[in-house]
Design goal:
Low-confidence stretches: none
Order of helices and strands: EHEEHEH
Strand order of the largest sheet: 2-3-1-4
Strand content: 35-45%
Number of domains: 1
Largest sheet: 4 strands, antiparallel
Structural class: alpha+beta
CATH topology: Alpha-Beta Plaits
Shape: elongated
Distance between the termini: 11 Å
Number of helices: 3
CATH architecture: 2-Layer Sandwich
């Protein structure tokens, strides 16, 4: 399989937002799946150190779809500056990579 795939890490203010955005991306076949988990964050914002609970998502996507994924997230995300970071999957089981590619196919040219 020659298709490049990535994981996209995104943070959200709450579980509901994480699930809604993740579901939209999967339904639109921009992501094969989204793992959602609770996290705690410490960060700079408006000149202050902030701390609080958040939720994070690890999306599995085709690397070539990253810009469309990022644009879709920005349209739905409530944060002014959402965390949207792509990590290349340098290795992985061939079956799993194939599953990501097949799950994000939106037309004959994607298969």
């Amino acid at each position: 399989m020659n298709e490049e795939v990535s994981t996209v890490y995104v943070t959200f203010p709450d579980e509901r937002t994480a699930r809604n955005i993740s579901r939209s991306l999967v339904e639109r076949r921009l992501a094969a799946c989204s793992n959602i988990f609770a996290i705690g964050s410490v960060y700079w914002w408006n000149g202050e150190v902030e701390e609080g609970p958040e939720f994070a998502s690890m999306l599995k996507v085709r690397s070539k779809d990253f810009q469309a994924v990022a644009d879709a997230i920005r349209q739905m995300h409530p944060y002014e500056v959402p965390c949207i970071v792509r990590y290349d999957i340098a290795g992985g089981s061939e079956d799993y990579v194939r599953w990501i590619v097949e799950s994000t196919a939106r037309g004959p040219e994607d298969r």
